Amino acid sequence: MQNQRVPSDAEESPVLLLVRKCQEGDQSAFGDLVCIFREKAYALAYSYLNHHQDAEDVSQEAFVRAFRKISAFDPMVGSFGSWLLRIVANLSLNKLRWKKIRNRMTFSLDRNINGAETEEPMPMQVADPSTKIDPHKSTEKSLENKRVEDAMAALSEQQRTALHLKFVQGYKISEVAKIMNLAEGTVKSHLFRGIENLKGSIGDLE
Amino acid sequence: MNCENARMFLGMYDESELGAAPAREIQEHLKECPACAKELAHREKLLRHLPPMPKFSESYWESYTESVLRRLKKPEPLLGLRHWRWATALACSLLLAGGAIFYKAQERRQMRELITHLELLENLNLLEQENFEKWVSQ
User: Fold this and answer.
1) Of B16, B54, B71, Cβ closest to residue A125
2) ipTM of this complex > 0.85?
3) What mean pLDDT is predicted for residues B3-11?
4) What is the distance between the alpha carbons of residues B133 and B121, in angstroms, rounded to a whole number?
5) To 5 degrees, how large is the angle CA A128–CA A131–CA A137?
6) Which of A87, A165, A167 is the best mutation test for B, with the most CBs of B within 10 A?
7) Cross-chain Cβ contact B61/A35 below 8 Å
8) Rounded Cα distance, B11 and B41, in Å
9) Could you say which of A38, A122, A168 has the minimum Cβ distance to residue B61?
10) How far apart are CA A71 and CA A24, in angstroms?
11) Contact, A125 vs B55, CB < 8 A?
12) In contact, B12 and A191? CB cutoff 8 Å
C-alpha cells in the first residue's frame, strides 16, 4: 500500500519558492510544480472517476486552472498541495455530474443499441515484468478482483473515493477529510458504510 | 469493549490514528471474540482486493508534464461555464427589455397617429360648421 501524505507547510518551503516564481509568471517553475504534484493529482482524480483517460484530463486541467489562478493562492490560508487537490476534487465532481447527465440522456439509446457503456482500456499501464504468473491463481485472483471492482463501482462516489483514498492511496482519515472537504466523522461514516456495502455485495472471498 | 463498538474500528484505522489505549482495547477484545477476529480477517482480505492505482512509466509522466505545459500555452477561453450561464441570462434579459421597449414605442406611435387623425377630423368639423354658418347668414 502506497503511503502518500498531503504536504504540510513545513515541508513546503521549496514548493513555496516555486509558487512565488509562478506568481511572477515563470512557467518553467510551474513545470517543476507539476512534476512534484502530478502523481497525487492524477491519483485523486482517479479515485473519484475510476477511469484513466478522465483522470488524466481532469488532473491536467486542474494544473492549468491552478496556473491561471495562482496569483489568488494565499500560502497563509493553506498549503499549495491542498489548494491544488481541492481544484482536482472540484473538477472531478463536475466531471462526474456531466457524466451522469450524459448517461441519463443517452441511456435509452444505448440500451436499444448495445447495452451498457464500454470502458476504454488503459494503454499506458505498465506491468511489472519481475512477477511470474501462475495462470490458475491469476484467473482466480482476477475473478476476485473483478468482483471487488464491480462492487466498488456500485458504491456511491463519496464512499468509493473515501475507500480509495484511505486504503489504496494510504491517506490518513484527517487527510481524506481535508481533501474531500468533509468532516472527519462523515468520512468515517462513508468508510464504514462503504465496507459494509462491499461485504454485502461480494460476500465471502475465497 | 463490546462487539458493536469494536466493529466500528476493525481494519479501518492505523494505531497512530486510533491512539494506543483504544488500539489495546480492540486487541484484547479480538483475543476473546472469535467472531470479531473473523470479521477483521474478512475486512482485511476485502481491502487487499481493492483495485490498485494504475502504475505508469517515467516516460508517461514526462509526456504528462509536457501536455500540461502545452495546455498552458493555449489561450484562455473568454468565458467559463459559469460565465456562460450569466451571459445567457443577461442576453435573455436584454432581449426581453428590448422587446418591451419596442412594443411600447409602437403603441405610442399608433396613439400619436390616432390623435392626429382626430385633430384632423375636428378641424374638418369646425370648417364645415363655419361654412354652414356663413351659408345661413347669406
Assistant:
1) B54
2) no
3) 80
4) 18
5) 120
6) A167
7) yes
8) 9
9) A38
10) 8
11) yes
12) yes
pLDDT the model gives residue B129:
85
Q: Please measure the distance between the N-terminal and C-terminal CA atoms of chain A and give it in whole angstroms.
A: 21
Interface check B100 vs A, CB under 8 A: no
Digit-coded pLDDT (tens) for A41-86: 999 999 888 889 999 999 999 999 999 888 888 888 888 888 999 9
Cβ contacts of B43 within 8 Å, gap of 6 or more: A195, A199, B10, B11, B12
pLDDT at A108 over 70: no
pTM above 0.80, yes or no: no
Query: Which of A117, A125, A104, A2 minimizes the C-alpha distance to A55?
Result: A125
With both helix axes pointing from N to C terminus, report the angle between A80-113 and A13-23 in degrees, rounded to the nearest 10: 80
Check CB contact under 8 Å for A2 and B72: no
What is the distance between the alpha carbons of residues B69 and B66, in angstroms, rounded to a whole number?
5
Cα(A55)–Cα(A49) distance, integer angstroms: 6
Q: Which positions in chain A touch B64 (Cβ < 8 Å)?
A: 34, 38, 42, 56, 60
Q: Give the residue carrying C-alpha cell 450569466.
A: B86
Q: Look at residue B63 and give its three-state secondary structure.
A: helix
Residue with cell 475486512: B43
Residues of A (103-142) whose Cβ lies below 8 Å from B: 122, 124-126, 128
Smallest CA-to-CA distance from A178 within A94, A97, A83, A92 is with: A83
From chain A, the residues in CB contact with B67 under 8 A are: 60
Nearest Cα to B73, choosing from A31, A91, A6? Answer: A31
The count of CB pairs under 8 A between chains A and B is 95
